[in-house]
Amino acid sequence: MTTNPSNFFPGVVRTVADVAAISRGEAEIFELVRDGEYAEALTAREIHLNGSADMGINENGDLLLFVREGSGKLTIAGESFELSPDCAALIRDGEAWALSSTSPFKIFSVHAPGMGPYARKIAKPTIGFQRVVQQGITNKGKATGNREFEVLFDESRGSSGATMFVGFIPTSGAPAHYHLYDEICHIVRGGGTFVVGDTKVPIGPGSTFMVAPRMLHSVMNDREEDLWILGTFRPAGSPAAAYYPDGRPAPGYDEA
């Protein structure tokens, strides 16, 4: 439960300071969550870029991006899309993509595999597609405690295998709870404490951690400003889908 660059298991918090950068053009890529010993695992990277970089071809599933800092363009098949802070983008399987920044980028990316028995089982038919989504355009929902959330990507915008959302945690935070999905979390703004059992780890912008299915955890906000947490989970569904330790659904979640 302490920061450890060699440990990629659930509950461990890490930042770019804990892993070595991989260069790709003018980009630096930090592998924050690798597949390790998990099959068909969600993986996550942070991309730092001041310039331009050909990022190659996205293979085997959806790649979801979130811009924490910076602005510039995402280019796919000759078409460019403006990126700015707090926006998200979807890159589909088989698409080649490139980035160029007008101010230095810090982009968090999560890859959701699309091949394999688990991916096939949980995939949802997409009912729409949107390349870029700006945070703030979607109505907020209610989650555990007095938290709110805003969905950025799910099957309604083209992501068949995962849901990406921003959660807004006010001062005090969320009580201990668990989910039936596996999730990668990334702190966008604010700070506080990630709690698993008796272990408490400070978190702030750039902190990243995994939450395994049924792992009891909580995120506490000890500051006056809201803590913004970016969550990406699968199977895709509602970020409100949470349970208290005794198995009761959290308020705001209807199992039906």
From TrEMBL:
InterPro entries: Cupin_2, RmlC-like_jellyroll, RmlC_Cupin_sf. Transmembrane segments: none annotated. Pfam families: Cupin_2. Residues 167-227 form the Cupin type-2 domain. This is Unannotated protein. It comes from freshwater metagenome. Gene3D superfamilies: Jelly Rolls.
